[in-house]
Amino acid sequence: MLQPRDAAPALGLGDAWSRFRRTVGLLGPAFVAAVAYVDPGNFATNTAAGAKFGYLLVWVVVAANALAMLVQYLSAKLGLATGQSLPQVCRDRYPRLVVWGLWVQAELVAIATDLAEVLGGAIALQLLFGVPLLVGALITGVVTVALLAIQSERGQRRYEHVVIALLAVVLLGFLYSTIAGGVDAASLGAGLAPRFDGRDSLLLAVGMLGATVMPHVVYLHSALVRDRYGERLADGPKRRLLRVVRIDVVVAMAVAGAVNLAMLVVAAGSLRGQGVESLTDAHDALGAALGSTASLLFALALLASGFASSSVGTYAGAVVLSGFLQRQIPLLARRLITLVPAILVVGVGIDPTRALVLSQVVLSFGIPFALWPLVLLTRRRDVMGGFVSRRRTTAAGIVTAALVTGLNVVLVASLVTA
Asked: What is the rounded CA–CA span in Å between residue 370 and residue 386?
């Protein structure tokens, strides 16, 4: 027997739809963080890994994405439990000398981050319109300020919408190339087994890790949650928000992981053995292998990534400065602090793709300085209250931080003995 239309609420369908809409309406902070996980540094490292080693380092992408889910969840939970950003909690809990040390390395990470993102935007503008790299870098910096103006004048939710739209451009670009190029399922499966093939593969693996688990968004995500759910943190049940945070992190990081995997798969399938040494080479080789649409979408994805991730990086830099030192500077000044090194790199003629890869290695060295405080603070009941991490979560966090730290030690040793 057919039910009347107005019987839907009685069946629970209306309530379920309302809950779904409310949940979707609360999503967003993790997607802003996710943009940093598909920035131009990922383009450079994943493309280089696929073009040179095929599917060998698939396991690095998968492992890094799993680590990213855990790390971003802990950061978001810290912001939810304390109503503070990770830098603020560090400032309140650690000695002044430690706080200053954390701030200095975080600023160096911000510079390395901006180098990758500005270079990516500049390369994309050159591929699409023939714009000189130096001019493209300046344009990327200007667009970043415009995007952040949306956040400051229209609110975080509107900024999230813009960032998610740019993330969708990146996703669709690589989805097309993955479908057009096909996937070697057997090689993909074999690539899940952890292994290296010499020092170059180790260097790329560390760069991929630095490009995926981004230290600056470990700091940022806690602030995004604090600012997004500020009123609800005071009035509403935090446990319900924690469920939303979990969904937000899992979905956003899954999207970022899919994009990273697609980058490597496309390079492994279409660029292997093509002598690809730069993003420009990758763009041209994709056009030759898969057609002009693939190369166009690659350039558009790179442009969207550069613009979005550069704004997120600047946002994170402001959170770091205000959190560790309780200092705030004008947005334009903040933009210039991290933009100048990128402009200098372009101006002196350093190979931009090589600079991108090396910047990701620098980022990987900054990860432990964000991870260890995060893991240690979220295990403390006096900090987290009822949201303190369970023992298995803390154990997973410690293993993650130890693995990242150990991988960096191995990298240093390999460079010294080379």
From this structure: 23
DSSP reduced 3-state for 82: helix
Reading the block at residue 181, the tokens are: 């190029």
Which of 21, 30, 11 has its CA nearest to residue 74?
30
Contact 156, 224 (CB under 8 A): yes
Q: Which amino acid is at 30?
A: A
Summarize the confidence of residues 369-396 as an average pLDDT: 95
Q: Are residues 345 and 133 in contact, defined by beta-carbon separation less than 8 angstroms?
A: no
What is the pLDDT at residue 233? 60
Cβ neighbours of residue 42 under 8 Å, at least 6 residues apart?
208, 211, 212, 259, 260, 263, 305
Which residues in 197-215 are b (16+ Cβ under 10 Å) and which e?
eeeebbbbbbbbbbbbbbb
- Candidates 42, 113, 38, 104; CA nearest to 341 is 113
Please give the structure tokens belonging to residue 77: 């939970």
The predicted structure's pLDDT at residue 34: 95
SS3 category, 380: coil
Whole-angstrom Cα distance, residue 369 to residue 384? Answer: 20
How many angstroms separate the CA atoms of 78 and 72, rounded?
A: 10
Compute the distance between CA of residue 60 and CA of residue 397 in angstroms, rounded to an integer: 17
Query: Which segments of 347-387 are extended strands (E)?
Result: none
pLDDT score, position 159: 92
C-beta of residue 113 within 8 angstroms of C-beta of residue 276: no
Q: The pTM is what?
A: 0.90
- C-alpha–C-alpha distance, residues 69 and 65, integer Å: 6
Cα–Cα distance, 184 to 187 (Å, whole number):
5
CATH topology of domain 32-270+277-417: Amino acid/polyamine transporter I (1.20.1740)
SS3 call for 95: coil
Q: Residues for the chain: how many in total? A: 418
Contact by Cβ (8 Å): 93, 372: no
Question: What's the token pair of residue 4?
Answer: 């009347």
Q: Give the CA angle between residues 155, 161, 167 to the nearest 5°.
A: 135
* End-to-end C-alpha distance for the chain, whole angstroms: 77
DSSP 197: -
Percent of the chain with pLDDT over 70: 92
Q: pLDDT tens across 304-328, in order? A: 999 999 999 889 988 999 999 998 8
Cα–Cα distance for residue pair 227/83, rounded to 1 Å: 8
